[in-house]
Design goal:
Elements lengths: L2 H30 L9 H13 L6 H9 L1 H10 L16 H17 L5 H12 L3 H16 L2
Helix pairs in contact: 2-4, 6-7
Length: 151
């Protein structure tokens, strides 16, 4: 076998190994996503407020007030779930790619719970809220299209 082919095969194997690490982490996140919501102090507060949030427009004043009323649960949730920018002192800049993937999937699913949910609006609102780039906006929107194409 020539040297170039061997190097190429080593590269392929190396990429596969790294993808396996990411896949394993995503599976762990899939299995553990939002488990803290099933325990005190989150479970009681989310039980009371989740039905109210369903009828509110994301980021509206009513929505923000509802979140303020849920402060104890939300603070606990952010502290225990790294797929939220609020988990990090430097916000989204502290996240890794796996955190972003879980966060994005969470956002898409959250918009589906709201009567007037719109992931494209949420992406734009969160761009200002979390100070991320136009490049990341494009990546998120492209990923929405990927999800929609797989339905």
């Amino acid at each position: 076998m020539d040297k170039t082919k061997l190097q190429t095969m080593e590269h392929i194997d190396n990429v596969r190994t790294k993808l396996s690490i990411i896949i394993k982490e995503l599976i762990e996140r899939q299995n553990k996503h939002d488990q803290s919501k099933l325990n005190t102090p989150e479970v009681e507060i989310f039980h009371e407020y989740t039905p109210r949030l369903k009828n509110l427009t994301y980021n509206s004043e009513e929505y923000k007030q509802c979140l303020e009323n849920m402060n104890v649960a939300i603070k606990h949730h952010y502290e225990n779930n790294r797929h939220h920018p609020e988990h990090f002192s430097n916000g989204i800049q502290g996240m890794n790619l796996v955190d972003l993937i879980e966060m994005f999937c969470d956002w898409v699913s959250a918009t589906e719970r709201h009567d007037n949910g719109d992931i494209y609006k949420s992406i734009n609102i969160n761009k200002e809220r979390f100070n991320y780039s136009d490049d990341l906006v494009s990546i998120f929107k492209n990923t929405v299209e990927l999800l929609d194409s797989k339905k």
